[in-house]
Specification:
Shape: elongated
GO molecular function, one term: DNA-binding transcription factor activity
Organism: Enterocloster bolteae
Keywords: DNA-binding, Repressor, Transcription, Transcription regulation
Number of strands: 12
CATH superfamily of the largest domain: Response regulator
Protein name: LacI family transcriptional regulator
Distance between the termini: 71 Å
Strand content: 15-25%
Radius of gyration: 24 Å
Strand order of the largest sheet: 2-1-3-4-5-11
Domain HTH lacI-type: 4-58
């Protein structure tokens, strides 16, 4: 006979695994009626919780770690605030680590956090540690954010704002404004986040029968920083036939491109239209408001906290899940038809 799990109890009781876990741990946050139903199902199915697992759970540190790749990106700190709000009612504290986009630093953090017996992990990986992350996910409830890990052994959830769809919508906005020479400054495509944005850019350009590949003259790939955005736009504008529009696929690269335009007196959008399928901060410093994508970081972060709590309370027995949020497009004054003022 197959072993009865918390998931089986939840399914037959018509409740979540988190609710079953609360009953097993004598939490007062369950109504008497629901508690009675769950206890009856437990008795009917003959469920016997693992004593070892219960003892391990009782040693909870009440600590959740958030490891981010870029501590300068306000996006992650907005998400962190929402995670804190979601977990604090259950008595958890959030511990934040910044890997500075360095895989060795990230690895050291992950090893240290594993030794500290954290209860859960929210990870924005910078890459290079997939095998370690897969191994940890089988022991520590884990939610990945922004970058997926495509590995059959990974146990956990994934949450993100879909900036890929934003990239498609904004590229189509440029196309509707009669642009065909459209450049894209993209992040490292070995990461799922950058690869998805590039794929959606290709899809939009295919609608006007333009193929985007490694030979596409208006494509540059590099790090997520303003220096690369600055240098990339400089390269584009030195071409014999420069682009008339630009998709800056990351907030920092967009800021770098805007700085180049400011430093070289390039009017936006008269000479160059710019869109950013991400949340661009500091744009007022450039006397232009780019059209950009605004993610609901509060809803995303709160859901991440909820997902992790559910995974902790189910003793990591949940199936892998995803939570994807579509950013809202904010229209700015950075787009016009080629050669025309707004």
């Amino acid at each position: 006979m197959a072993k009865i799990t918390i998931r089986d109890i939840a399914k037959q009781s018509g409740v979540s695994t988190a609710t079953v876990s609360r009953v097993l741990n004598n939490s007062p946050k369950v109504s008497p009626e629901v508690r009675s139903t769950i206890l009856r199902v437990i008795e009917e199915l003959g469920y016997h919780p693992s004593q070892a697992a219960r003892e391990l759970k009782n040693k909870s540190s009440k600590t959740i770690a958030l490891v981010i790749a870029d501590g300068t990106n306000e996006y992650y700190f907005q998400i962190a605030q929402a995670i804190i709000h979601a977990i604090q009612e259950e008595g958890y504290t959030l511990f934040i680590c910044n890997s500075f986009n360095n895989s060795e630093i990230e690895r050291n953090y992950l090893m240290m956090l594993s030794e500290r017996k954290i209860d859960g992990l929210v990870l924005n990986s910078c890459g290079g540690n997939n095998e370690l992350i897969v191994s940890l996910s089988q022991k520590i409830p884990t939610v990945l954010i922004h970058r997926r890990i495509d590995h059959p052994g990974f146990v956990g959830d994934f949450a993100n704002a879909d900036f890929g769809i934003s990239t498609y919508e904004m590229t189509m906005e440029l196309i509707r404004n009669r642009h065909t020479k459209i450049g894209i400054i993209c992040g490292p495509t070995q990461f799922s986040s950058a690869a998805e944005r590039l794929q959606q850019f290709k899809r939009a350009m295919a609608s006007i029968h333009i193929t985007v590949d490694r030979d596409y003259r208006y494509f540059l790939e590099g790090p997520h920083d303003s220096a690369f955005g600055y240098e990339a736009l400089e390269q584009f504008l030195r071409l014999p036939h420069p682009p008339t529009a630009l998709v800056a696929a990351h907030n920092e690269t967009c800021i770098g491109a805007l700085r180049y335009c400011r430093d070289h007196n390039i009017p936006i959008p008269e000479t160059l239209s710019i869109v950013a399928p991400c949340n661009v901060n500091l744009c007022d410093l450039f006397y232009v408001q780019p059209t950009y994508a605004l993610p609901d970081t509060w809803a995303l972060g709160f859901r991440i906290g909820q997902m992790l709590l559910e995974r902790i309370q189910s003793e990591n027995q949940l199936l892998n899940r995803e939570a994807i949020y579509i950013p809202r497009i904010i229209q700015g004054n950075s787009v016009s038809c080629p050669g025309n003022p707004r």
